[in-house]
Amino acid sequence: MSTPLFHEHLFHDSAATSEFAVRLSALLHPGSVILLEGGIGAGKTHFARSLIQARMAVSGVVEDVPSPTFTLVQTYDDAEGEIWHADLYRLTHPDEVDELGLIDAFEDAICLVEWPDRLGDLTPEHALTIEFSATKTEGERHARFICPTPEWAARVEEALT
């Protein structure tokens, strides 16, 4: 695997984070995996919700998109296939990830994974990682993008412009 490419961006409010998620959603395809890192309240679920709602809207579906904190995984069907939104916070061992079916989904679904540190050695090498952190300004988020391939770097750059 090549050396990851890093990008950083400051989203000035939650609307800017949502706009980025909407633009990035159009650039995804089955097999796209996004790992969402950051503490509680950093903006992971807000980003995932915006991205999923944008994908569903293309199919004419309005979706509520609840946090999968208690269900661990929520799945959605859009025009291209499945979207998996996973929150692994409550997992205690990487073996539990396989039981959820998430490993197979990495190959043929769009996957958004919160708390990806729980994946351990099961972390897909081809995944985009977004590290979110809140700033002292209400609604403002700093994002650090770790792009494992030039293709991911190009998608991030396109969605940021």
From TrEMBL:
Compartments, record wording: Cytoplasm
UniProt cross-references to InterPro entries, sorted A to Z: P-loop_NTPase, T6A_TsaE
Secretion signal span: none
Main location: cytoplasm
Pfam families reported in the protein's UniProt record: TsaE (PF02367)
Keyword annotations from UniProtKB, A to Z: ATP-binding, Cytoplasm, Magnesium, Metal-binding, Nucleotide-binding, tRNA processing
Family matches, as NCBIfam families: T6A_YjeE
Family: Belongs to the TsaE family.
Annotated protein name in UniProt: tRNA threonylcarbamoyladenosine biosynthesis protein TsaE
Organism: Aliiroseovarius salicola
Name of encoding gene: tsaE
